[in-house]
Amino acid sequence: MGTCLKLTRIFKSTSIIILMIGLCLALQVMTSRAESLKLPDQQKQERSEGKVVTTSGGKWLPLPIFLTEPAFGYGLGLGLGYIHPQNDDTETGAVPSLQTPKSVSSSRSGQKPPPSITGVAGGYTEKETWFGAVGHSASWRNDTIRYVGALAYADVKSSYYLLDRPLDFSLQGLGLHQDLKFRLGGSRFFLGGKLLYLETESEFEITIGEDTDITLGDISSRNVGVAAEASFDGRDNVFTPNSGQLLQLAVWRHDEGLGGDYNYWNGTLKALSFHQWHPDFVLGLRLEASAVDGRLPFYAYPWVSLRGIPALRYQGKSVGMVEAELRWNIMPRWAVLGFAGKGAVYGDDPAFETQDNIIAGGVGGRYLFMPDEGLWLGVDVARGPEDVYLYINVGHAELVLRRRRMLALNGREVYEVKLGEEYLMSSLFHDSEVALADIGLGELDGTGWDVVVGGLGLGYTAAAALKFKQLKRLVVVEALAPVIQWHRRGLVPNGKVLTLDGRCVYRHADFFALVRGDGFDPEVNGTRFDAILLDIDHTPDFWLHSSHEDLYSEDGLHRLKSFLKPNGIFALWSNDPPEDAFLKLLSTVFASAEGLLVQFDNPLLQAVSTNGVYVARCG
Q1: Residue 79, helix vs strand vs coil
Q2: What pLDDT is attached to residue 234?
Q3: Per residue in 146-159, pLDDT tens?
Q4: Are strands 529-534 and 504-508 parallel, antiparallel or unpaired?
């Protein structure tokens, strides 16, 4: 009888963690997907008094769900989300290249806000596990506040490992997840809190002999927890990062005072780091750790989470994981990857064994299934200590190049670069990019020029610079490796012009970091140039990332000037006409400065649009 009661207490505890895993199938769709899903808004154009008014309409989005967690079996699901219309009177409203030459990230922090989505999802697996969920995500006040919430019900059938032996179980339960966080100023740091509520009914089946089973049923449990979380996301994009880091730290408190059954602490740390060794090779590194303390139930022990290892297989009081993945972009729409990881489990609980050599790894492939939508499909094959497992992935790329013909302009072919659901630029508007080179280099004398172009885009500024016969070398600095590859592979109009010209050198780097460092020359530190042409940010006070801000200060401009020759020229593109305040700042650093208007025909607006170019001279 005592043994039966002990098992009952264990099963009551473990039932909730089983629900947590089961609900992850739903919450992954209704929270993670909702936070990061980025598809183009439907654009509605209406003519009124000779002007085009652009608004962002709502959109229904069906989403297939491939369930490949070994603990629950393989299965399929479907999510249906409604992407809410964006408010046009906020900075996060879509302003595509239909109206302006450029509109990258509307957020001044340089990150695209997550879309507001409401949706439902459901799925079923071969082990007869099924779930249903409803959720909502939103951001407010120019993406300074983010919210994600989901309510899910799951009927889970799987196996749980106790003392390294599998136990079959079934569980039905309801779960509620709430997540609210706040951006710190214009940075990529967030602080916030979470709430988790789980209520379950479960049955476990114990096999004593070949023909003897014991079923424990109607085991109820409730768990309520709150968390404080701090995070930083400096990745260049969410789904297929090439560079940057993601850091997350969360501390959970589960307490009877909140309406639950237990009192304990749980801390988790997650760190991701991406490094682009070569335009076609990206190394991803992952570190995760989790620990628990207090009067905690069995279910609260963390487990090793690596591809090739089922959920709940290896648990302990403290768990750590490291993993490395190398991705090779072999073709514009194909990539292959290899990955390997190691996990460790520590603790003094007799139900678990300390293990520090849990190895898993495998290979995978990715295919850009829908280039216009940035939809990637992937398959990973991974082997752990015991078996081989297959994983299917559906994701979206942040950076997309597309070519289309515009019927409204008699079938004119247009190239567009999109970042998420925003447009980086369009070949339909490039007059001001050409003018940046013409104006800036037109101020130079002599021959044998060394010139820097900050920002490659579709290559119009660089191509215009190469038309000057006095130019000896052109260093083009671009932070996004795929953009360089598009030019090298001739996928964009100016690709061959730049790549085949021996005077042109691509440098994959952050222009603003180079200004703070040793300069732009890939071979000789501190090299001075005849001209620096910059076309990256919207305007001097509307940046793509907050890390760009310091360049547009007196100290930042002095650093940039140090890489110019005594009679060198600095020219800057701006989406807006020149402003007196920035001209005054330029005049304090350079010998002279002026602002020029660049006007060009806008065939969609049937009107003249205006950009600005700042020109500053060292002497």
Answers
A1: strand
A2: 80
A3: 899 999 998 888 76
A4: unpaired
Q: Distance between CA atoms of 230 and 233, rounded to whole angstroms?
A: 10
Contact 579, 540 (CB under 8 A): yes
Is the distance from CB of 61 to CB of 40 less than 8 angstroms?
Answer: no
580 token code pair: 């007196």
Q: Count of alpha carbons within 13 Å of 105, Cβ hemisphere only?
A: 24
Closest CA to 123 of 1, 26, 55: 26
For the stretch 585-610, pLDDT in tens is 999 999 999 999 988 877 666 678 78
Q: How far apart are CA 13 and CA 481, in angstroms?
A: 49
pLDDT at 238 over 60: no
The counts of H helices and E strands in the chain are: 9, 28
**CA pair distance 318, 296, nearest whole angstrom:** 13
Sign of CA dihedral 10, 11, 13, 14: positive
Q: How far, in Å, CA of 302 to CA of 317, rounded?
A: 7
Report d(CA 115, CA 106) in Å as an integer.
12
Q: Name which of 397, 572, 458, 371 is nearest 102 in CA terms.
A: 458
Alpha carbon 400 to chain centroid distance? 13
Q: What does each C-alpha distance from 427 to 484, 538, 551, 591 come to in angstroms?
A: 16, 17, 28, 35
Q: Give me the percent of the chain exceeding a pLDDT of 70.
A: 71
What is the residue-wise DSSP string for 560-591?
A: HHTTEEEEEEEEEEESS---HHHHHHHHHHSS
- Cβ-proximal residues to 211 (8 Å cutoff; 6+ apart), any chain: none
Residue 431 in tokens: 């007059």
**Rounded to an integer, what distance in angstroms lies between the CA atom of residue 143 and that of residue 235?**
17
Token look-up 């030019």 returns: 487
20: which DSSP letter?
H
Query: Tokens 């951001």 identify what position?
Result: 139
Q: How far apart are CA 442 and CA 388, in angstroms?
A: 63
Amino acid at 114: P
Confidence (pLDDT) at 65: 77
Look-up of token digits 């303390």: 293
Residue 262 dihedral angles phi and psi, to the nearest 5°: -135, 160
Per-residue pLDDT of 285-341, as tens digits, reads 999 999 998 887 666 788 898 988 877 788 888 999 999 999 988 887 788 999 999
SS (HEC) of 223-247? EEEEEEEEEEECCCCCCCCCCEEEE
Q: Is it the case that residue 557 has pLDDT exceeding 80?
A: yes
* Between residues 256 and 20, the one the model is more confident about: 256
For 88-92, the CB contacts below 8 A with 24+ separation are 88/54, 88/55, 88/56, 90/142, 91/142, 92/139, 92/142, 92/143
Q: What CA–CA distance (Å, rounded) separates 327 from 580?
A: 47
Cβ-Cβ contacts under 8 Å for 9 (sequence gap 6 or more): none
Residues 45 and 54 sit within 8 Å (Cβ to Cβ)? yes
pTM for the whole structure: 0.54
- In whole angstroms, give the CA distance from residue 364 to residue 391: 9
With bands split at pLDDT 50, 70 and 90, how would you rate the model's confidence at 248?
A: very high
Under 8 Å between Cβ of 578 and 612? yes
Integer Cα distance of 248 and 288 in angstroms = 10
Kindly give the residue spans of alpha helices, DSSP state H, lying in 421-459.
431-441
